[in-house]
Amino acid sequence: MIKAILIFNNHGKPRLSKFYEHYSEDTEQQIIRETFHLVSKRDENVCNFLEGGMLIGGSENKLIYRHYATLYFVFCVDSSESGLGILDLIQVFVETLDKCFENVCELDLIFHVDKVHNILAEMVMGGMVLETNMNEIITQVDAQNKMEKSEAGIAGAPARAVSAVKNMNLPEMPRNINIGDISIKVPNLPSFK
Amino acid sequence: MALKIVKGSIDRMFDKNLQDLVRGIRNHKEDEAKYISTCIDEIKQELKQDNIAVKANAVCKLTYLQMLGYDVSWAAFNIVEVMSSSKFTYKRIGYLAASQCFHESTDVIMLTTNQIRKDLSSPNQYDTGVALTGLSCFVTPDLARDLANDIMTLMSHTKPYIRKKAVLIMYKVFLKYPESLRPAFPRLKEKLEDPDPGVQSAAVNVICELARRNPKNYLSLAPLFFKLMTSSTNNWVLIKIIKLFGALTPLEPRLGKKLIEPLTNLIHSTSAMSLLYECVNTVIAVLISLSSGMPNHSASIQLCVQKLRILIEDSDQNLKYLGLLAMSKILKTHPKSVQSHKDLILQCLDDKDESIRLRALDLLYGMVSKKNLMEIVKKLMLHVDKAEGTTYRDELLTKIIDICSQSNYQYITNFEWYISILVELTRLEGTRHGHLIASQMLDVAIRVKAIRAFAVAQMATLLDNAHLLTGNTQRNGICEVLYAAAWICGEFSEHLEEPMATLEAMLRPKVATLPGHIQAVYVQNAAKLFATVLRGQEGAPADSTVAQETSQLLIDRLPLFVQSSNLEVQERASCILQLVKYIQKLQQKDVEVAEEVTALFAGELNPVAPKAQKKVPVPEGLDLDVWINEPPSGSESEDEGRKSKGKAVFAKDESRHTKPRYTEVDEKELAKRREVRKAEQANNPFYIKASPSSQKVYQDGVGVEHIPVVQIDLSVPLKVPGMPMSDQYVKLEEERRERNKADKKKKKDKKKREKGEKGRRRRGDSGPESEEDITPAHMVDIVTEEMPENALPSDDDDKDPNDPHKALNIDLDKPLADSEKKLPVRSHRPDEVLKSPMEDRQVVEVVPEPKKKTGKEKKEKKDRKKSKEKKKKHKQEEEEDLMGAGSEEPVQPEETKEVAAPPPASTPEAAAAPASTPRTASGMAAVAPDSEPEEAKDTEPEETKSSTHKKKKQKKEKKKKKHHHNHSDGAGDESVQNGTVEEEEPLPPMSNYALLAENSYIKMMKQDADKVCDIQGNLQDGSQVVVSVIFENKCDSFIKSMEFNVLDSLNSKLQRPDGAGPHDGLIVPFQLPPGISNEARFIFSVQNIVMPQKLKGTLTFIVKTDDSSTHEKLDFKLHFTCTSYLITTPCYSDAYSKLLESGDLKGCSLKLEGVNQPFHHLLARICFHHHFSVVERIDSCASMYSRSIQGHHMCLLVKTADQTVSIDAKCDEPGLLGNVLDEIKLTFSQC
Questions:
Q1: pLDDT digits (tens, 9 = 90+) for B966-1003
Q2: Is B235 on the interface with A (CB under 8 A)?
Q3: What is the CATH number of the domain that holds A71?
Q4: Looking at the predicted complex, does its ipTM rise above 0.95?
Q5: Using an 8 Å Cβ cutoff, are B80 and B927 in contact?
Q6: Domain AP complex mu/sigma subunit: where (chain A) (predicted)?
Q7: Is the Cβ pair A45, B317 closer than 8 Å?
């Protein structure tokens, strides 16, 4: 079982948090902080496994993480998951994000956390791995997005126009913000399959 | 109006969406919290609006804020609204929000059951998918029970996308509702061979999770999995299966033998490291399980170790880590094959990666032998010096101690060395493990008699240099060591070379800065030392003044401790001070006192096994949970505090050992142990008496001076002396071994060592070949730990009683009985209706069990046939589903109607607690299962209606009405719908709706005013009551423009929208076509709730026929009973009894004659009509509780005998109580 999936940046700012067990908001933040603390002080070229923090489940659980550009992707899993398998799943996740957002960068995650959630929902459900085939995931995500668009239809047009105008008028277009503009380079890892 | 709508939709475009919110937060870095709080205010406004798009947008933003740590549970109801939108876009937002913030105690969850059921059967696969995903995160036992059947149906859905989700979520359903496992299992098994790999993988996933916890129930699946393993190419599936086999093999060795070959093949063939690794792991598991029977698998072991070595040597740190991890598993059974890789593992200790170093440390634990222990520990000590982080250093420290103390100090040949290692470890700054070191020192000093002299000398030095340990920080954990040092010096003071110096060191003023429990030990042991010193001084022919000076020293120094704020210290100090004063008096009279003083501390303490106390058998007839004397309330905590202080002193090191074990025990267990401890302490003299043989009086040891003490190197004065000593020991040891070898032939190895029960491993099976050559440096007599007489050897202390998987330990191989074919239907249990929600839930899960098992022995064949038939039926249903779903009202699967529970809102809990909190009550009325949230909103008076939704709504109204009744007459409804099981006579139907007024055109039904303090969450001063009114059109014409008006009284006022005059009516926000009914809710504010109220009102409306329309009106009287001011509030018996004890409540009683209904019906009636909840029920007596909206407590004690019911009631508001009792009387006179 996967107990939690966390994405935060190099400064510990959460970009996505998905807990498959209930914790209070305060505990969740504490877990994120603790996890960040554990993960961030590790060098780049050390192993990606970490004995779990005190908060999530304790010793039975492991933290498995990958660091891409400015973001940490952390999965907290118990002993029934294969460590290398989860590492691969993270890779699939990031590659999927990369496909869905076209050169994903931190800003995509910042502004579209809902979409990231939707993508994740096609991969992991209730803490169990649902799908590992990237093409299948993308097909389902696309189909749902299409549905969303058709529902918005003409009614959605004015709203889209307004948001375009908003983006035009405001001096800060997302991509111009300094931090997080580094797109996540998805390295080509030896495939797991 | 139209203008308003247009304006609203334009406004909406400029509403902040998620992106705007994020952008805003980023632009307000300095005052983020303030900015967010204004955003939350905006969101609250948006949520109040009618438009679902606005609401969804607001909920979307809330989801983001939730991630940032803001509690958004207040919007739970709005989330439900968004979830029930018909548009996928919004539905998805709603479900996402719910999955992020709903959990078992979210009360609105119970409103979602029907919505989820509807989504599950939606024709759109993504609606279903989104619902399943959401449900997987927030499924509760209730939801699981109510939806299990629907999900089971989905497992055979035509689309693999749905199938795989449905299969996965079954795991969550099993966890929450274990009864569903057996009926669902055959289908789950089918899915293992599903044509779609995704579904297959999901099924494997679920079964693996299940099997991991209760492997023995899944052994019968092994052949199937074996087939899958040899045929599947999906690595995910393979990994899961192989992991599963790892869990199964310990139970079935034959399986292991069969596995070895294919696994070895996989190891050789696969290129995926993850698969290779899992294969190796499982082979190891197999070998472990075989190791007892068949030792002949050295080839496999070699293969594994070889592969692991490759992993460890790999440059990829991940592989290195995993390699070490797997290696440690082999170590347990085949230490020799691992020990040959010692070089590699020691190398890993130098790795820059902490995770890897920790794993390597774990391995070291199993690799030590008598021969290499010193060497390894020396290496570790070097690492301790180098380590930067305190956590890693602490880890090292514990590992060193673990390694040395394992198996009852099996590998330690030289305890002097070990003591000096411990002393060296005290030098560590900022360690948390002072306790651990201290307990080791105590343990060794007590159990290894031969080492006492040396230990005492070392401890004396420690005491002398105490300032080094306590110097830097107050909260330094290391000062715990002084506790051990002081105790050892005191207890074994006969070994001290210079007791006087040590005594002086123990009474330094600086000691007063130590923690209290340590000071207490100091004081007590100073007294012991004093005794020893006196004996030395009196024994010598020198003049008696020396002895008197010693007494004077104590008399001078002890007052400092007498002033201590710590009670323990104070008590001991003053006691000993008086004693010493008395002694001094005697001394002045030239009386020899040494003998008598020493007698005070005579007798030896024996080490007690950590579990000894727990193992003391409880004498027959002694109930440890019962209070001997009824305790005065409130004294308990104080009691405990005192005890815990006492523990530090009395329990000595035994308590330390057991500490980690005790962390997980529950309250009850603790209380039990407390009692045991009490008994133990009371019996203490007996305890010592029990082993008279070991009693030794100190006087025996004449001449302390003759005891040889190792000369301590004091060359470095300002460090704790003896620091570098352990190194010397290593050298000495080597020399000694050389010598030993030389004259080995002369000497016979005559080691005789008693081993403690704790010893897990016999010496012979793990040590290297030359082990026997090494003799201990000096004969060590390890004292065995004592266990109480006739202690039971059981070892079942380590199980977690709260494991949810325990409930899933269900035999799955037994054929399903007829009764089990379908998911268990919630049977009718009237008693349940009466219980507070907590108890209730337990009952729901427990009760069906025995019933199910009784009628189980049935013929298999028939079963199978039936299941086939059922399958067919399922398919049909599905088709029906698809067809039916095209129309506006989706057809619910037939099966659910026949078999499954009636609509969930009418579960017993719901009926028992129509409003466990006020909010749910309002919610229940507002979200009729099929209604769109817009409509729900519409029912609130102040809303203006948007005509777009009208049509749709009208279609549904009929259905809706039915549901409303379901809500209201929960208990009765159940007995009507649920005709399947009836063990006891059912409750008569009950309804809270009463006829309000009726004429030829319209009928008004009033619900017995369900109460709500507040709807939107802004708590105001007054109390509010919500009245739900159902309007039913009885004529053939269209009814519109209904206006509801009530003449306000001083006490109660109808709440009207802002700006409306006090006499204006409220527009009922809907129209009624012929034959249709609908419900509206009106809010009243009430000031005084003591008296019942009657309000006069009028309803005006226009009846529109084809050609004309007429204005009509209907008068009615609204009756607010006092009961309607009560809120069903669960109360637990302890709180209840406290409430009664408080004495604030005034009593009143009532007798009802000639009531001839069963007691549980009676209780149910009181619960239902008068909003009470049952606190406790014993036979024909029950206590009940309720609370008014203004917070008055109301307690009832209901007793029944021979058709007579007596009710004793207490309440802090006598007027209210009287009226409520009158109403109860009325209720019973009516039936």
A1: 443 433 333 333 333 333 444 455 555 666 667 766 66
A2: yes
A3: 3.30.450.60
A4: no
A5: yes
A6: 1-147
A7: yes
